């Protein structure tokens, strides 16, 4: 089945630092790739997505590029803010049943 | 506004009791899902349903049951057979454009 491996946290950065959270996946066919964000005590919100190779998803200063050759979808942001502190999940959706398979999540803490 | 409603937000039950978590959506999505979240484990799929009156087991279905009698509703029952039921439970629905998640129910069994 599908699987996702993402960088284990926790990750602690200072405000305005550069962020990278690595994510690699295994899936058959042509999966779609997602990054979700979860704030404390809440559900998941879609941060960005990419549906085919070489697509770049972007939102709120975050970016990730679908790299089929390296089966990767790394999340990046050039300058993080305190408000970006949250848990970030990489996910893959393949096949015809639209099931999402998640990585274990990466806790990001941004200090002022 | 369309969305998914999970209730209650917090739920406490005694060990050995069955408990049902509610999930309702008004997005007209065909597919619905239940995930369990534990610290450091990510989200694991319990059950999913692609159409009314049909559902499939996910990766960790043992000790859980579901029903899908209406398109809008996908309740999850945590039975006494579930060995470690204390967790955060998330419901989701989807169509071809993407997924929407509820805000979750935190179940604590004492």
In short:
The complex is a heterodimer of chains A (112) and B (110). With 112 residues, chain A is mainly β. Chain A is built from no helices and 12 strands.
Rounded to the nearest angstrom, the radius of gyration of chain B is 13 Å
Distance between the termini of chain A: 41 Å
Query: Radius of gyration of chain A from the CA trace?
Result: 13 Å
Number of strands of chain B: 11
**Mean of residue pLDDT of chain B?**
93
Residue share in β-strands of chain B = over 45%
List keywords for this structure.
heterodimer; A: 112 residues; mainly beta; 12 strands; globular; B: 110 residues; four-stranded antiparallel beta sheet
Secondary structure blueprint with pairings:
The complex is a heterodimer of chains A (112) and B (110).
Chain A: E1 3-6, E2 11-14, E3 19-21, E4 23-26, E5 32-38, E6 44-50, E7 56-59, E8 62-65, E9 75-77, E10 86-93, E11 100-102, E12 106-111
Parallel strand pairs in A: 2-12
Antiparallel strand pairs in A: 1-4, 3-9, 5-6, 5-10, 7-8, 8-9, 10-11, 10-12
Chain B: E1 4-7, E2 10-13, E3 19-25, E4 31-38, E5 42-51, E6 54-57, E7 64-66, E8 76-78, E9 87-95, E10 98-101, E11 105-109
Parallel strand pairs in B: 2-11
Antiparallel strand pairs in B: 1-3, 3-8, 4-5, 4-9, 5-6, 7-8, 9-10, 9-11
